[in-house]
Amino acid sequence: MPRDSRPIALQRLMPFTNRSGSRKIRTSDSIHSDEDPLIDEEAAEPSLRRRQRPKDSKNRCHFSWQSLKPAKIYKPRTVPFHADDKTKRRFSPNTVINQKYNIITFIPTVLLEQFVVFFNLYFLLVALSQFVPALKIGYIFTYFGPLCFVLLVTISKEAMDDLHRYKRDKEANSQLYQRLTAGGLQHVPSSKIRVGDLVVLRKDQRVPADMVLLRTSDDTGSCFIRTDQLDGETDWKLRLAVPSLQRQGHDDDLLQVRGSIYADKPHKDIHSFVGTFTHINEDTGMEQVEPLGVENTMWMNTVLASGSAIGFVIYTGKDTRAVMNTNHPETKVGLLDLEINRLAKILFLVTLGMSVVMVGLNGFHGLWYIYVFRFLILFSSIIPISLRVNLDMGKSVYARQIEKDDEIPGTIVRTSTLPEELGRIEYLLSDKTGTLTQNDMELKKLHMGTMSYGLDTMDEIQTHLASAFGQELVGISGKGRRNIVSRVRDIVQALALCHNVTPVVNIDGEITYQASSPDEVAIVKWTEKMGLALVARDINKIELRVAASGETLTFDVLNIFPFTSETKRMGIIIRDRQTQEIIFYEKGADVVMARIVQYNDWLDEECGNMAREGLRTLVVAKKRMSEEVYEEFRTRYREAEIALHERNALKQSVVEEILETELELLGLTGVEDKLQEGVKNTLEQMRNAGLRIWMLTGDKIETATCIAVSSKLVSRNQSIHQVAKLKSAIEAMDEIDALQSKTDCCLVIDGESLQLCLESCQEEFIEVATRLPVVVCCRCSPTQKADITRLIKGYTKKRVLCIGDGGNDVSMIQAAHVGVGIVGKEGRQASLAADFSITQFSHLTKLLLWHGRNSYKRSAKLSQFVIHRGLIISVMQAVFSAIFYFAPIALYQGMLIVGYATVYTMAPVFSLVLDQDVSEDIALIYPELYKDLTKGRSLSYRTFFTWLLISVYQGGAIMVLSILLFEDEFIHIVSISFTALILNELLMVALEINTWHRLMIVAEVVTVLIYVASMWLLPTYFDMSFILTTRFVWKVAVITAVSSLPLYIVKFIKRRYAPPSYTKLF
C-alpha cells in the first residue's frame, strides 16, 4: 500500500478500550451525548429497571409479518484468513434492503393497510354492494370512482416512496470496492462482499460492511473515520490497525498470513467489540493471540476520513451494527385523527339509524332488510371518503408553511401527520444541556484548596505558569511562593494532557480542536490561554508549547482510559521525555473521585458552591508511578485485554487496584454552559400558555436548580421543593404527602429518589407530580427520561412534547406524542429521530403558539365542514325518499354526486386551511390563548352535534322548499335543489372564514363559474331553457336565503353577546 506522505489530521483520540456496552444507538439505555462527558453533573444514575407499559396501549395488537419469522439466534464466529466460498456463504449476504415491498407483496400489502382504515373499508363494502342487483343504485362508477381515486393517491405515494428506497438501495449495493485477492485487486460491488474478504478502502470512501482494520497507510497504523451517519456524532474517531499486521512489509503479505479472527456475536452496541486475532508467528512457529477491541473496527456506513486502509470483513448485511440499529418506531397517530375516527363510527350509527327509520316508517314489509341496505348505500355520503384526502392535503400545507417560515429557519417537518398535535400540547419535557443551554463551555473557576481563581484573577495563573516554565523558579523568593507556582503548573499541565482532544491545523495555519465533549475543548482552550497550548497529538505522543519560553514539551502516551457513563471518569498514563517520569492523570465526577483521591476537607463543599453557581464541576488528580509499578500494571492489563469473558470488568479491576489509589488531588474546575438565546422568554411564554414543564437532566441537583431559576423555568414567586437521597418507601410517601398541599411549587428530585418513588409508590407520585407546574428531574438516565414520558402519557392521557439535542434524548423523543429535536453541536441524531427538527429552543414558541394553533383550528374546521357536506346531502335524500313513499331512489346520480364532493365544493372547503382566527402578533403576545386549544373545543361532540343539527335544518329546508315552490316544475327538482345546495355550501364556507385570503376568494369565484359552465355541459340534469328564467333565479335565491341566512343571524348574535375570548384582544 502506498504511504500517504501528508500528515493525518488527528481529530480525536479514540479510546483504546471498549465502552462497557454503555453506548447504544437510539434505543440504548445510556446513549452518550452532552450529558455523558467527563464531568460530575452529567453522569447519569443507573437506569430505571421497572419498565411500565403505557395504559393506553394495553389492549393494542400490532400485527407484523416479521412476527411469523422465528427469532434469529446469533453466535460468535471465528473466520479464517483465505476462507473458502462454502464458509463465506454461511453468513448473511451484504445487501442493503430498505424496501417495504416487492413486486409480489406491494399491491396486497398496501391494500391491506388501507382497508384497515374504517373509512376505506366502509366504502369498499358500499362499492361492492353495487354488484348485487337488488342493492344497485345509480352508476357503479359513482361509488368506485372516489374510492379508487383515494386509493390511487395513497398507492402512488407508497409506490414513489418505495421506488426511492429501491433506488437508494441499488445505489448502495452497486458501489464498487477493491478486494485484495491472490490474483491482485478486484473491483466488486458492495453486495458481493462476503465475510472473510480483504477490502481496500480509500479516503472519503464509505465502509461497506463491518470490518477489522488490518493495515493503514500511516506508519503508526492509525486512521480516522467519520461516524455521523451511524451515531449522529460529528467528531472523527481514531481507529488502529492490528499491530502485527501493520508491521508487515507490504499489503500483499496479508495473503500469506496463517490465522483467524474471532468476533463476538452480532449485537447493536456500536461502542463495544470483543475479538482476538490468532496467528502463527513465522519466526518462532508459535501461536500468538492479539486482543481486538472497538478501536480496531470500522463499522458499516462510517466513512474513512484519512489515508487508506485494508479491512477484514467480519459482519455483513443484517448482522452489521448499522442494520441492527435501524429501528422503525411505531407510527404516531395524532389526537385529531383519533377523534375523527370516533366521529366516523358515530356517523355510521347515524346512517344505520336513518336507514332503519326510513324502512320502519314505511312498515317492515317483505324483504325489508334489502331496503335497509339500499338506504345505507343512499346515505353513504354521510361518511365522507374525501375527509381523509382533505386532511392529508391540509397536513402537507401546514408542513410547508412551517418549513417556509423565515422566523424559524432550518425547521424540518419529518412526520407530516402531526402538525395538529402542536396545538394540543399540555406537557413539555425538555433536556437541559444543549437544549436550554448552548453547550458552549467556558472555564470560569479553578479551585485548588487554599487558592481559588475566577475570571478576574486568571492573569495570576498566567504569571505563575510563566515563572514555572521559565528559568526564574530558582530565584523565586519564599517557599510558599514556590509551592504555589509548582501547584499551578501541576494542575494546568494535567488539564493540558488528560483529555481526548486533538488539534487540527487548518489551511490558514490556525489550530482548532476536535473532541466529542465541548467541556474538554473549553478546558484545552483555557490552558492555551494560560500559556500551555496543545499543538500536536497522535496515538503515541502529545506535544505542548509553552508560550513564555516557546519551548515544546513532548510526552509519550502509554495508556489511555476513556470516559464511560459507568466509570464517570477518564485517565491517561504519560511519560515525560525530559524527566522520564511516569505520571497517571485522572479527572472525573466528584462522586467517584472523592473516594479515589487522598483525604481532604474542602472538595465536597466547593463542589456544592460551584454547582449552586450553575457551573459543571470536574475533579483533577495525579499519581506518580515507578517503572516497576508501571510494568506490573502493563502485564496484568495485557492479560485482561485478551480475555474473552468479562474483559471490561477485568480491565477496570486492574485499573482500580493499581492506579486508582491515593491519588494526589490537584484541584477542581468549574465550567459554565451558557443559556440558549431566548430561553427565558420562551419558557415564560410556555408557562403562560398553560404547559406544565419538566426538565430532565443528568446534572446534579444544585446545578439543575440554578439553571431552572436563571432560565425563568421557576417563576419569581414560586417555591422550590427539593427531594434527594431518599432511602425507603416510607420517606418517599412522606415527601409525596408534603407535596399534596403545594400545588404551585417547583419539584426538584434526583434520579435515585425518582427511581424509588416510581418503584414503591408510582401512582401516588405521578398523581402529585403531574399537577405541579414545574418538575426538575436530576441525575436522569436516558431510560428514565423515556419511562417518565410514557408514565405521563399513560396517566394523564394528555399530549406530551419532548425536546432534546443529544443521542441520549432519542428514546424520550420517540416515546412522546410529539418529538422535537434540536440540531446540536454533537450532531443530528436527536434531530433525525424527531418528528420536528428545529435549530434553537426559542423556535418552539412560534411552532406551538402560531403553527400549532393554526394547524389544529384549521383541521378541526375543515373536517367538520366536510362531514357537514356529506350530512346535508343525505338529509335531502332522506326527505326526498320520505315524500316518495320511502322508496330508496337516488336523488342525485352520476356526475352530480361525483362533482358535489370534488369540483363543486372541494376548492372553497379546502381553502379553509388558509384561515386564521387571530393574527400572528396576537397569538404570540397572548400565549394564554393557547389554553383554549388544549380543551379540544374546536372539534368535540358538542360541535359535531351542532353541525348535525345545522345539516338537518339546511337539508330539510332546501328539499322541502324546492318541492313547495316548484310544484309546477317538479321534473326540474334535481337542478333546483342541487343549485340551492351548491350556493348554500359556498355561503357556509364564507360564513366560517375569519380572515379572508385571496385564494379563498379565487376558490369561491372559480367554483361558481365551473358550476355555471357545467350546466351547459350536462344537459341530462340541467334544462337551460328553464334555468335561464327569472322564476328559477328568484326562487333558488329564496331557498338559499332560508337555508343559510338564519345561521348568519345566529353568528352575529353570538359574536355580539358571547364572543370568543380572543375577540376581546382586538
Nutshell version of this structure?
The chain crosses the membrane at residues 103-125, 137-155, 343-361, 367-387, 866-886, 892-914, 944-964, 970-987, 999-1020, 1032-1050. This protein is α+β, with helices and mostly antiparallel strands.
Structure, described:
- This protein is α+β, with helices and mostly antiparallel strands and 1066 residues long.
- Helix content is 42%, strand content 18%.
- The protein has a nine-stranded mixed beta sheet, with helices on both faces.
- β20 (532-537) and β21 form a beta hairpin.
- α26 (844-883) runs antiparallel to α32 (973-992).
- The model is unreliable at 1-68 and 471-480 (pLDDT under 50).
Pick out its properties.
Calcium-transporting ATPase, transmembrane domain; nine-stranded antiparallel sheet; 1066 residues; 42% helix; single chain; Calcium-transporting ATPase, cytoplasmic domain N; 35 helices; HAD-like_sf
Secondary-structure-based class equals alpha+beta
The CATH topology name of the domain at 335-422 and 846-1064 reads Calcium-transporting ATPase, transmembrane domain
What integer is the average pLDDT? 83
| Main beta sheet | 9 strands, mixed
What distance separates the N and C termini? Answer: 75 Å
Helix content: 40-55%
The CATH architecture term of the domain at 335-422 and 846-1064 is: Up-down Bundle
CATH class of the domain at 335-422 and 846-1064, anyone?
A: Mainly Alpha
Radius of gyration: 36 Å
Q: How many distinct beta strands?
A: 33
DSSP helical segment count: 35
Strand order of the largest sheet: 14-33-32-31-15-27-30-29-28
Tell me the fraction of residues in β-strands, as a range: 15-25%
The outline comes out as elongated
Task: Enumerate the spans where pLDDT stays under 50 for 5 or more consecutive residues.
Answer: 1-68, 471-480
What is the H level of CATH, i.e. the homologous superfamily of the domain at 335-422 and 846-1064?
Answer: Calcium-transporting ATPase, transmembrane domain
Biased composition (Basic and acidic residues): 26-35
GO molecular function, one term: ATPase-coupled intramembrane lipid transporter activity
Protein name: Phospholipid-transporting ATPase
Domain P-type ATPase C-terminal: 832-1059
